[in-house]
Amino acid sequence: EAVVLSSVHPNTFIQFVVQVLNDDGSLLSAALNGCMAALLDAGLICTTTLGATCCCFSQDGQLLLDPDLAEETNAVATVCFAHDNKSKEVIASLCTGLFADDKTFWKSEQLARKASAQVFSIMKQAYGILKGVGVPTQ
């Protein structure tokens, strides 16, 4: 709801059914990015574009970006962030487990924010976002 410009689509019901065929880690970020790509591909006018990335905090104290399934399974904590393309702020997040401290959590958010720039770059190449496609004209 925060992404689709609902005033342009007042009687439209949008529902995503995500069917997982293979989970090799970072499943939530892959699903969110796939849903965003579906909105852009459908040509719906969006207020922004979101890019999702996952991080995990390993048992040996390392922050891992885009963890695979084994890294996620063995992690102390895992977090997925969805960032707004315009403001670069967090739209949504989901955390499982417990980070060592707040500093580590916010360090993971900064790491995910930088990685979301790559997600946006790929979406820009694929769908022409930031050039008017999928984003309302002002």
Automatic annotation (TrEMBL):
Alphabetically ordered keywords of this record: Exosome, Nucleus, rRNA processing
Swiss-Prot/TrEMBL GO biological process terms: nuclear mRNA surveillance; poly(A)-dependent snoRNA 3'-end processing; rRNA catabolic process; rRNA processing; U4 snRNA 3'-end processing
Record carries keyword Ligase: no
Pfam families documented for this protein: RNase_PH
UniProt domain Exoribonuclease phosphorolytic: residue ranges: 3-44
One Gene Ontology CC term in the entry: cytoplasmic exosome (RNase complex)
SUPFAM superfamilies from the UniProt entry: Ribonuclease PH domain 2-like, Ribosomal protein S5 domain 2-like
Molecular-function GO terms, alphabetical: RNA binding
Major location category of this protein: nucleus
Keyword Acyltransferase: no
Family: Belongs to the RNase PH family.
Annotated protein name in UniProt: Exoribonuclease phosphorolytic domain-containing protein
